Amino acid sequence: MKTYSQEFKIKLMPWLAATALFMQMLDGSVLNTALPAIADSLGENPLQMQSSVISYLLAVAIFLPVSGWFSDKFGIKKAFLFAISVFTLGSFCCAMSGSLLTLSLSRILQGAGGAFLVPVARLAVLRVSPRDQYANVLSFMVLPALIGPLIGPTLGGFLVQYASWHWIFLINIPVGFLCFFATIYLMPKIDSLGVPAKFDFKGFLLIDAAILFLSAVSFSENIIGNFSNWNFALIALAFAAFYYFYARNRKNAIFNIAMFKIPSFAIGIAGNIFIRIVGGAFPFLAPLFFQTALGWTPSKSGMMMIPMGIAALFAKTFAAPLILKAGYKKFLIGNTLFLSTFILAAGFIGFSTPLWVIVVLYSFIGMANSLQFTAINTLALIDVPDKLMSRANNLLSVSFQISISLGVAIAALLLAKTGGIGFVAAKQNVLLEAFHLTYIIVSAISVIGAALFIFIPKSAGTKIASIENNNI
Length: 472
Known about the structure:
It contains 17 helices and no strands. The chain folds into three domains: 1-199, MFS general substrate transporter like domains (Growth Hormone, Chain: A, Up-down Bundle), CATH 1.20.1250.20; 201-249; 260-472, Growth Hormone, Chain: A, CATH 1.20.1250.20. It is mainly alpha-helical.
């Protein structure tokens, strides 16, 4: 069997990581377009399908803190093979699901693999690349994160309309096998950095308990009965408080509390939560809005996501110089208001709205989202010292996953409370009103983020790294 040189394997490593990342990002963007069809196949209300989205995002958030320690303990190659295997197996189980419960459970398995894919892939690339090449290799890895959502909704629409929804998961299987065997033969040798610190199991349990009870807010109306959402939220806050007192003096804590003494990091995490809630709500709402309220086909609905993806890619070309020229404070306040204004405008789309107006509007939303994510991620990490960077990056990723799942849950709850409670049986004009009110409230949520950004210190970003590489 042919063997390849270490130098050749190092050159291929960004491609291998990008392929795995593309598989994960494509899967997430394909699903939203297919939700109405999956609901019809499983005999469910489309509004109740948010559990299939949230369960995946929640699983990623729960297992994400383990990925760094797991890679150090068992090696990056084994961790990457584990991630690909679990994600691919989860995809197969999703395709075989015959009920919403089995689909949600399969998505949890898929999410457990997805939690390892991105951080382990990024770690592998950074470990084999010279520091002066970080900008190039990370920029290359960002592309799948933008291309996946660009083609995902369209691909999902065509698969649902001309094949079946099962294929949105089955397409992951050949890609997974390709990545698995490519990793075995083509991943370069990566030296260990030594024995990792003892895993903070107590801290992990406290963090996961907080995440689980916070996520119960999303599911409580469907599966927990009359137990108040506020009760779950208070229990989540209690576990978070327990973790604070537990971890404040521990050096091996999963999330070092000292990070929050850095103003840009604290504001970046808080702002990221509100911005990502909007980032989770909008992609969930858009396909449902087009298909149920406006009566569009899945393929037409999916194609409407293309302008958002193209605009997001275009925004990458001028994001860094624009942020540097304006400064983090002015840029984030202005762009947040810009984004909320266009989401508000989406609340007035109706049956008579010209298609070109919708295309332009969604393009601006895609552009603003891309700029926002680039700026907020960089703000959060820009002043973090090297010794805390891996933990800060993990916490940012966890807040991202939790916020996205909360965004989906809040969007579904708002849609139900504003008139879409019957959903399938509701008349289109009632659904249209429900979506309009939901878009308006989601727009207001994003404004809260703008208020937080007022407190960004002027010194934030003086240690500028590579802004354009922090989009994911």
